[in-house]
Amino acid sequence: MGVSKQVTFSLACAVVLSAVIPGVAGYLSARIESIEAAERKLHAQELRLNARLARETRQVAYPAPCEGKTVRPARELPPAAFVPAPEYKPNKGERPPVVPPPAWLPR
Q: Where does this protein have compositionally biased stretches of type Pro residues (predicted)?
């Protein structure tokens, strides 16, 4: 009695899937567990770091109002701080002119 090719193919597919599906499920569950373990480890290290920083942090000075504070007027910038250079068309062998820095720029 012969088994048809379709039945043989179906049985072969069932055998392969019965091995592949649990293997993939096991792999994925192991990956998820390792990610969760890494997250727990990271969270624990963050808590330890925050506790350490909280212990080491000290207030340097207490805020106090300034006495004898003088108010200086705000320094105004010129209205046209950056003016585009005029068009320059060099002749053959001629160098472009040197543009001096603006007068408001400290030296």
A: 97-107
